[in-house]
Amino acid sequence: MTARVVLAYSGGLDTTVAIPYLAKMTGGEVVAVSLDLGQGGEDMESVRQRALDAGAVESVVIDAKDEFATDYCMPTIRANGLYQGEYPLVSAISRPLIVKHLVEAAKEFNGTHVSHGCTGKGNDQVRFETGFTDLAPELDIIAPARDYAWTRDKAIAFAEENDIPIEQSKKSPFSIDQNVFGRAIETGFLEDLWNAPTKDLYAYTEDPAIGNAPDEVIISFEGGTPVAIDGRKVTPLEAIEEMNRRAGAQGIGRLDMVEDRLVGIKSREIYEAPGAIALITAHQAMEAVTIERELARYKRTIEVEWASQVYDGLWYSPLKRSLDAFIDESQQHVTGDVRMVLHAGKATVNGRRSNHSLYDFNLATYDTGDTFDQTMAKGFVQLHGLSSKIANKRDREAQ
Amino acid sequence: MTARVVLAYSGGLDTTVAIPYLAKMTGGEVVAVSLDLGQGGEDMESVRQRALDAGAVESVVIDAKDEFATDYCMPTIRANGLYQGEYPLVSAISRPLIVKHLVEAAKEFNGTHVSHGCTGKGNDQVRFETGFTDLAPELDIIAPARDYAWTRDKAIAFAEENDIPIEQSKKSPFSIDQNVFGRAIETGFLEDLWNAPTKDLYAYTEDPAIGNAPDEVIISFEGGTPVAIDGRKVTPLEAIEEMNRRAGAQGIGRLDMVEDRLVGIKSREIYEAPGAIALITAHQAMEAVTIERELARYKRTIEVEWASQVYDGLWYSPLKRSLDAFIDESQQHVTGDVRMVLHAGKATVNGRRSNHSLYDFNLATYDTGDTFDQTMAKGFVQLHGLSSKIANKRDREAQ
Amino acid sequence: MTARVVLAYSGGLDTTVAIPYLAKMTGGEVVAVSLDLGQGGEDMESVRQRALDAGAVESVVIDAKDEFATDYCMPTIRANGLYQGEYPLVSAISRPLIVKHLVEAAKEFNGTHVSHGCTGKGNDQVRFETGFTDLAPELDIIAPARDYAWTRDKAIAFAEENDIPIEQSKKSPFSIDQNVFGRAIETGFLEDLWNAPTKDLYAYTEDPAIGNAPDEVIISFEGGTPVAIDGRKVTPLEAIEEMNRRAGAQGIGRLDMVEDRLVGIKSREIYEAPGAIALITAHQAMEAVTIERELARYKRTIEVEWASQVYDGLWYSPLKRSLDAFIDESQQHVTGDVRMVLHAGKATVNGRRSNHSLYDFNLATYDTGDTFDQTMAKGFVQLHGLSSKIANKRDREAQ
Amino acid sequence: MTARVVLAYSGGLDTTVAIPYLAKMTGGEVVAVSLDLGQGGEDMESVRQRALDAGAVESVVIDAKDEFATDYCMPTIRANGLYQGEYPLVSAISRPLIVKHLVEAAKEFNGTHVSHGCTGKGNDQVRFETGFTDLAPELDIIAPARDYAWTRDKAIAFAEENDIPIEQSKKSPFSIDQNVFGRAIETGFLEDLWNAPTKDLYAYTEDPAIGNAPDEVIISFEGGTPVAIDGRKVTPLEAIEEMNRRAGAQGIGRLDMVEDRLVGIKSREIYEAPGAIALITAHQAMEAVTIERELARYKRTIEVEWASQVYDGLWYSPLKRSLDAFIDESQQHVTGDVRMVLHAGKATVNGRRSNHSLYDFNLATYDTGDTFDQTMAKGFVQLHGLSSKIANKRDREAQ
């Protein structure tokens, strides 16, 4: 059977020249699949045409922006999905969606192989390939950058040898991945951990120091999902886009991290994710009002595990699904409004209201109307501390 | 035996009038104990004298600032101790230290009772009393505000009836607790969750919007503890004080939370903890460079539990001690420098360096010098995803 | 309004005499509610009549055996719900069901109060009362044993004073609670932890040492629930009853524990739960074949929390519901057969088969047919250990 | 530099013929290192000589029984280290010790390589190799069974071709690994999960059904470690050996598991570990008396993680060390006596006593002398359930 390689196609030089290269290496044909995840930049139709020009037998562009926002970004917000407590999993959640569409394309176009452009030292190879083996283990996987040491230099040389016309733009010193949920920048001078990021790195956010006037915003949630901004209904995609714009204008969502990669090494990463960070901040505040204490406490450890699973490329794993079930159940009443001030790099919550609130003014107040029966507290305190009291007594006596 | 009540004495009207009141209720004597935890305000000698004037048979003032910083604040930094992911446990860590000194005073002055001024609906009663029963279960506990419904009004009435001269300052509409690690403000109009905090609430921090010039600072850590700032050696207390000043000038460390109290209710809390937040931010960045991935991941869940234990008044509990042992072991190599920019409400890390770094440029770089063997990755990816692959296959076939 | 006390009525002397006593104390009426949870003993109609004879205005008996087995015991099996790794929560899961029916009876009979016979130092008071406040906080709670120090002696005295005819059986030296899921025995000479339990304590199990012939049984599961035994379809109740009989005949399910009560003290408990232990053992073996590794690992910590929540009387809590959602999702494929030998106190699994199995002979075998690609392992091992390798190297160099 | 391969040498045919094979493949020399871990069988001196006869330039036998018992088995007991809740990590804890001695031998004999006989689909390759890279990353690793597909057939063929005299014993159909802590059996007809194990599999345990008379034993612990049996002082090694004998005579410690291997597949494993299971059972009972409730609860999840780390070959990892620190702290007061009856496959605890006991008869008893203040319970119950009560009320109202 002739090989048919379904390639995750970005439109860049490397994956463009990879089209004839993969055809040659496999003796088969290449189907290019490109997803619009809100990464911006070039017109997607040009991307599609370029793949055909490079020799792809089919080239497909899929507008997956709404699907991405609804089925991948919103669960991340509900999970307060922050790897290492900071990184909102921007690239990590995009890979399983790309995988899903590549697998569908492989079915539609009788693909025998799937292929991606990731190297062998990053996380994304893992996310692509566990996705492929989870959803379609019958497809063979080719990772030219890793398996054939395919590089930009090799791509240029191959293009020249094979008379493939290429447009050689000046290569950015950085490796960049972006979609509507955020933007990741690595390599270059950032590989020295002591070097501070420079202003030219950023594209989604303004410098927090420029002094834009504070911007007050009200985010409304239903069941853990943002559904309105300042009273106007929004789709998940619109929520992210609007908050990207408004929080981005205030320099919110810039991250400078040393990150633990799944492959066992640490790396320096710069992110900007203004909408993601603003929305998660609001979501956490909404949860604080509407989720019961013990559930809230336990959910914190569930969130750590959820973020690890997703970061580690296990979006389609059984554990991820059970964690999702826990989180979905927890979100039933995460409904109401959060008011925030966006300013100078920070989203600050300063008000919340909800018909599902667990805050009880009459129990909390020290003013008239107090319904909390303080005489109950004495007994509570005594039994709350009893096992520790007995243990401390034993410790003293046993010495 | 005549009762001798050792009272946690603040110098305020309520606990001052409580001195003769407790003496009357118990038919005994009162020993006043006041701790200087860096809360500022009044001269401690005046406080000491006021207790004597009110009838205390002994009045002791203890400068516990360094002890507090070293033995209570530093462990909180090493644990990244943030209740609900935000609150650096300002009041929660002060209570066990006050307890410790009250118990010592009870031994010195033959105390039979200990007493505190907390109400029956807050956390601090629990922290005081579990501390007392942990360290000295033989002492009886009196909580006049809870057990005798002792209030400001009652105090004033009692003072008038008993010809006790009092100075009736205008009562703040807020309930405030403060020490060198931070400041807590509650009640008043804040009890409506939709009301934003007003500027006059704050004392440790400037308004982040006033536009002070950014302040760059280098914090040096040894074994998880800050030991130098901008190259100058500092004690733990000095580290907190300097960062209070510098981060406070930038409006860093303001928190507006809905908090889950131990007694089962939610309450609105405003905090300012500029030094605490700045130091914990730096500490987390130092850990990211020097702690191995799996340890770092697991420590996150340990931190959640540590903060809960401390918040819940279990500083002296056996579980807290075992969590401490875990954390202490983890901090051995958390040594090096972190550079941060303090500005407009936010501490932003932009550089880190360490002789104990786990970051390996040669493994991480995409440039020449790369020592990472990418051919290893293929096998890793396959086995990493194998159990999920088998499960997904089963799921499809079993439907 | 006249008080109407809905009483959890056992038929014993204490709760019988409590009927007129509660009527007198509240100036109202008493409605007796008794549940058949398979505890055996007396005919339930006699129990019902006795309450009326003692002055209850209504007396209701509810056959809740199937409901208990299906909605309370089966979730415990799916959760492998073993407090302290041993106790299958026999009494803990019965209380929320009794509560549910008392609350329903209160609605039907216009109850204003609910009442139970538990003391103030056990767990069951907590389970009753958190259940009541969760489901019907408008009902007042009376716990005569705790709140009025109601005891057997007091009951006898009260009966004599009020000419209430009572049948004074010889009181067991033990406190016993039992239902179809098991039997709990405490107090008496067992309060000395060094005393071994005596043979007369047991009623659900034979002495394991008597040497009954081994009994081989095949338990079939669907979605984590036992549905057939030796090929015959069974209801949840029948599954427990049959395994009580067969595992009981082999002395399986006897437990001798020092237990951590919710109220902060340790107590000695003897349990017998032959069906529960046999079914959980089989369930764990079924899970080992059908649940993916990472899910199985994480479920272990979920199980610890689930058992704690249920033991602590939080059956109806939000956290319990989210844990249930996790567990339900995990059980989808826990389907197949487990073969066990029941003998001499132990249920030993020795075979399992399933159409949902994740065991793959061709991957596991060392014989011909092996499909596991061993060359993948080398890369896996290297990256699996890489972060620890780097850390150990750092540790040596940093010393 | 000439290669010097330090080989983990078992004395069996495969590793014996591997000696000249490794010499040939590397063009170097082989140093054989054999550890006595109490696996019994052949005299270790014969093993040593056989390696020399096969061409090893050095052959070393190390009696590591006491070190193994003290530094590897005892921590496992203190951690109640049971993978999947059952398997006491018999092989998993032996590999890091073998690694340690191989690394020492490499230093002593100027080794350049280390080598082991494990295949590429098991756990032990991982445990060996993460151990090697943790302790001595400068050594190259050769795994002939995996990297050169070295098998018994290949060994026999190589021996014949090279005139190496071999004694071809009838190969067991099973793959067996054993040491003083237990014995593991896999492959053969056991690869069909429905096949029950046969009696001939077992060597450390009698058939539990043979009806030996019950054997009562008292195990004494100090700080979590068994130090005496029936009043006689024992070393860790003696404790294991004596309990192997006595619990083995009763058929205790037989396990039949479907196990989740680290490499992602499930496998059937039969274990016998009479001493390990008996000692862990006693240890758990000792902990129940001497460890405070919250610490005990949390330690359960720590134990799950500890067992996973050790199973996964991460004995020398930073996380393992921090978990150890937690456990060590928890064991301080795990001191006292546990009485057990060993009989027919089961170790049943029926008594415990300790000067470090947290059990307080006066708090627990329902008899005279009761010091538990039941009036405290009412307040406790109310606040314990308050947050869930508020949440349930909200849930009803918000529907």
UniProtKB/TrEMBL annotation, chains A, B, C, D:
It is found in: Cytoplasm. L-aspartate binds at T119, N123, D124. ATP binds at A8, Y9, S10, G11, G12, L13, D14, T15, T16, G117. Residues 174-390 form the Arginosuccinate synthase C-terminal domain. Its main location: cytoplasm. Pathway: Amino-acid biosynthesis; L-arginine biosynthesis; L-arginine from L-ornithine and carbamoyl phosphate: step 2/3. It catalyses: L-citrulline + L-aspartate + ATP = 2-(N(omega)-L-arginino)succinate + AMP + diphosphate + H(+). L-citrulline binds at Y87, N123, R127, S175, E259, Y271. Keywords: Amino-acid biosynthesis, Arginine biosynthesis, ATP-binding, Cytoplasm, Ligase, Nucleotide-binding. One of its GO terms (molecular function) is argininosuccinate synthase activity. SUPFAM superfamilies: Adenine nucleotide alpha hydrolases-like, Argininosuccinate synthetase, C-terminal domain. Residues 4-165 form the Arginosuccinate synthase-like N-terminal domain. Its EC number is 6.3.4.5. Homotetramer. HAMAP family: Arg_succ_synth_type1. Belongs to the argininosuccinate synthase family. Type 1 subfamily. This is Argininosuccinate synthase.
